[in-house]
Amino acid sequence: GFSRQMVEILHKHNVAFSSFDIFSDEEVRQGLKSFSKWPTYPQLYVAGELIGGLDIVKELEASGELDTICPKARKLEDRLKSLINKAPVMLFMKGSKQMAKCGFSKQIIEIMNNTGVDYETFDILEDEEVRQGLKSFSNWPTYPQLYVKGELVGGLDIVKELKESGELLPVLKGEN
Q1: Any idea which UniProt keywords this protein has (predicted)?
Q2: Fewest CB within a 10 Å sphere: which of 87, 112, 128, 176?
């Protein structure tokens, strides 16, 4: 219950954080108590420094200090824009260039590799927030999704149509 309360407070304040399940490693569980000189869990650390447990976090929240101490999570829309613009040609897919994890992703990788155009990929199976958020952000309900210079080109069917019409290479090069 204490850990759940801590997570709720951090989410409520849009804090960027990660967690470690102390039940998954007894050595870490016991060692961290000695290291931190703090006998209970959860323990909140910011920039490697122990802030404290749930009671202290609640006090920091009440005083308004929590917002000044903890780093803020990036808003999903900002994160999506950053990912879309990570490379001039960006492909959101199931898997990676080296290992497509569905038939549609495999087909689009084959088409992309035959163009000779350099591109980056993002595995949507690795990040559920991006997977769901990008569908809404782009107003495109399926994957893969191809972006050129931050603009949605479309999915596999659109890429196939562009290839058949001879327009794919100019689109990938940002000429259209």
Answers
A1: Iron, Iron-sulfur, Metal-binding
A2: 128
